[in-house]
Amino acid sequence: DSEQVSTIRFAPEPLTQPTSVAPPADSNLASPADRVASDGSIRDPFELPANLSVGSAEPIQSASPGKELIESREGAIASGNASALPLVISDYSESPDGWFAEAQQLAQNAASIDDMTAIIELCQRALAEAPPAELAGPLRRLAGWAHNRCGEIQIEQGLQAEATRNFQIAISLDPNCSLAIHNRAVTLAQQNESEAALRDFNRVLELNPGLSVAYRNRAELLSSLGRFDEAVRDYTRAIDGLPETAELYRARGIAQQRLGNFDEAAADLDRALNLAPNDADTYTQRGNLSAERGEFEPAVNDLSRAIAIDPNWADAYRSLAWLHATCPDARYRDPQQAIAAAEQAAKLSPPTDCFALDALAAAHASAGNFDDAARIAEQAIASAPPDYVETLRQRLNLYQQGQPFTNQPADSVRAASHEASTRK
Fold first, then answer.
1. % pLDDT > 70, the chain
2. Distance between CA atoms of residues 255 and 326, nearest Å
3. How many CB atoms lie within 10 A of CB 39?
4. How many angstroms from the chain centroid is the CA of residue 143?
5. For residue 125, what are the contacts with CB-CB under 8 A and spacing of at least 6?
6. pLDDT of residue 94
7. Per-residue pLDDT tens over the stretch 62-85
8. What are φ and ψ of residue 99, in 5° steps?
9. How far is CA 417 from CA 143, 246, 283, 318, 388, in A?
10. 278 neighbors 308 (Cβ within 8 angstroms)
11. For residues 416 and 319, is the Cβ–Cβ distance under 8 A?
12. What is the distance between the alpha carbons of residues 51 and 418, in angstroms, rounded to a whole number?
């Protein structure tokens, strides 16, 4: 009998940082633009003053803006340059109230790291004057918001370490800043710091139980850890808040598939396609599910449809190659189509993608090209994650013995598991 292959270890799409939200409500600010690219200049974030307490303070409903209008034109008139002098020389007093009001105004349209740094510096200057608690709290929250936005911009620039530092400072300034905690959680998850990321996600949802994106991202992390029951629950909570989001149904469908809940998985994938009828990823996932259920004709149709929608979608080529190379029903085995699809998957994937290489090796073995199959399988082993190496070695042994790999009916697509999406 052919070796039974391991189950798919579903890995989520890369965790995404959440969309920016408005600054703290007690700062009286309008929502700044989301995801605005910075001008590229980065200043060192400020160090917290040594005498600054980061304890929480009671919020205030509105802060005194501290404006003073200075209307002095005599000097300019005397010099004959009155037109060059604005009526208002300074709108803000040199005081904590004034600096806070100025920082609030800047935050209305803040877009770059320079803008955020200016807000931070004003808040730092005000905090250094030891203002009363009713002003210190909003100042810390506004500074925390600006640090969080710096981190978000740095994430877009690929500056992970700098972003993490800004998220950490934001949390130090405002321990209840759920967005900064969430951003730190996402960054930790991307760095494989799973337990720390889970702690942060849990804290975010304690502070903000209705944050659907946090449920979504925690579900992605739980799925990557194989905790599919918990992931399904979190996806469901995310769907409750975002019921028209196709991606969430697709992701929950994959988790249901991993639990063996095939009917529930199919319903979720169908719903995802109703919401997004031209999504190549969902067609690929539904094709994989059909193949796992032994429904090979619908599987081929869905995988072919995915390729028609997106000719550069490597996952669909890889799954189609695997089905044509290893299908337990001989009517669907087609070595030449398998090789063609596997070569395209390899072309569209990173050179060290062990799953694309695995599919290509199986395709060559199905055509009787066992030397090529063994050589490619060795390349796959060299780049495989540790927990997948043994499965690949078992297939390599078959190829070295002149035998192709054929799936058992319940595992028709599993071996070419999609540990990492190639779509960016």
1. 75
2. 24
3. 12
4. 25
5. 99
6. 86
7. 233 333 322 333 333 334 443 433
8. -65, -35
9. 45, 22, 15, 9, 10
10. no
11. yes
12. 51
> Around Cβ 229, how many Cβ atoms within 10 Å?
10
The DSSP secondary-structure symbol of 67 reads B
SS3 92: strand
Residue 8 has pLDDT above 70, yes or no: no
> Residue holding tokens 């319903």?
267
Q: Do 424 and 13 form a contact (C-beta atoms < 8 A)?
A: no
pLDDT, greater one: 308 or 109: 308
Residue ranges of alpha helices (H) inside 160-211 are: 160-173, 178-190, 194-207
Q: Is 85 exposed, middle or buried (0-12, 13-18, 19+ CB in 10 A)?
A: middle
To the nearest whole number, what is the mean pLDDT of the chain? 80
Instruction: Note whether 327 and 407 are within 8 A (CB).
Output: yes
Question: The tokens 């991606």 sit on which residue?
Answer: 247
Residues 6+ apart with CB under 8 A from 343: 360
Rg (CA), the chain: 28
155 contacts 167 by C-beta, under 8 angstroms: no
Angle at 96 between CA 95 and CA 100, to 5 degrees: 115
Distance, CA of 176 to CA of 147 (rounded, Å):
14
Q: Which neighbouring-strand residues pair with 67?
A: 92
- Taking the C-alpha atoms of residue 370 and residue 392, their distance in angstroms, rounded to an integer, is 15
Record the tokens describing residue 136, joined without a space: 């210190």
CA distances from 357 to 181, 401, 415, 421 (A): 39, 19, 11, 15
Answer whether 147's CB lies under 8 Å from 166's CB.
yes
pTM of the shown model:
0.73
How far apart CA 376 and CA 364 sit, in angstroms, is 9
Looking at per-residue pLDDT, the higher value among 387 and 75 belongs to 387
Whether the CB-CB separation of 180 and 211 falls below 8 Å is answered with no
Weakest mean pLDDT among 23-27, 289-293, 307-311, 379-383 = 23-27
Distance CA 124, CA 145 (A): 13
If you search the block for the tokens 């013995």, which residue do you land on? 401
Identity at 277, one-letter amino acid code: P
